[in-house]
Amino acid sequence: MILPVVLYGNPVLREVAKPVGKDYPKLKELIEDMFETMRNADGIGLAAPQVGLTVRVIVIDVSPVKEDYSELKDRNTNTAVLINPIILEHSGEIVQKEEGCLSLPKINEKVSRHNTIKIKYLDENFVEHIETVSGFFARIVQHEYDHIEGLVFTDRISPLRKQLIKSKLIDLTKRNVDCKYKFK
Ligand code: NI
User: Fold this and answer.
1) What is the pLDDT of residues 50-92, one digit of tens each?
2) 109 catalytic, yes or no?
3) One of 93, 109, 124, 144 is an active-site residue; which one?
4) Distance between CA 184 and CA 182 in Å, rounded?
5) By percentage, how much of the chain surpasses pLDDT 70?
6) Domain-by-domain residue ranges, the chain?
7) pLDDT of residue 68
8) Environment of ion ligand 1 (residues, CB < 5 A)
9) What is the DSSP letter of 44?
């Protein structure tokens, strides 16, 4: 089921999300709905707060951008489900790259992030994984991880850039936005 995407300005995006247990009701359906919602909106990553649930669940599907990044071609799967993820280590150089977000349609800004991170998470079967990821995949994970910590990518841009997009953010808060997917 396609869910409405929570847009910037909704306080749910500012909450620190809670860990989920195996007994979380309808977790499988939530994960399926998150994938469907994300793909419908042409996204490559989505965190549960973006569909209004303050729990630590992230879905990723890099298929649309796989050919653009060698580190994505090397991955044996296009999709990932990250439950209760923890970033154990940041390393590598700081890389600046343009990002966008389904919760901030039509806004793209350069964000600085570490190139490599070591993460620990549970998959959809509650199997624990510890993985070191780099490049674009590491960027997606860091962006989505921010969401479950109550942050959005525009929190990480310079004060000058933030000033320059201020009117866009205000329009977004007023839901004065041209957005092709359902939102709330
Ligand atoms: Ni986002």
Assistant:
1) 999 999 999 999 999 888 888 888 788 899 999 999 999 999 9
2) no
3) 144
4) 7
5) 100
6) 11-173
7) 86
8) 101
9) S
Structure tokens at 80: 């990932």
CATH homologous superfamily for the domain 11-173: Peptide deformylase (3.90.45.10)
Strand 109-122 to strand 57-61: parallel, antiparallel, or no bridges (unpaired)?
A: unpaired
Residue 10: predicted pLDDT: 97
| CA 148–ligand 1 middle distance (angstroms) | 10
Cα 15 to ligand 1 centre (Å): 14
Q: What distance in angstroms lies between residue 106's CA and the mean position of ligand 1's atoms?
A: 12
Q: Edge-to-edge strand order for the sheet containing 109-122?
A: 45-47, 57-61, 79-99, 109-122, 128-134
7-35 pLDDT, tens per residue? 999 999 999 999 999 999 999 999 999 99
C-alpha of residue 99 to centroid of ligand 1, in Å: 9
Reduce the DSSP state of residue 118 to 3 states and report it. strand
Distance 10 CA to ligand 1 centre (A): 13
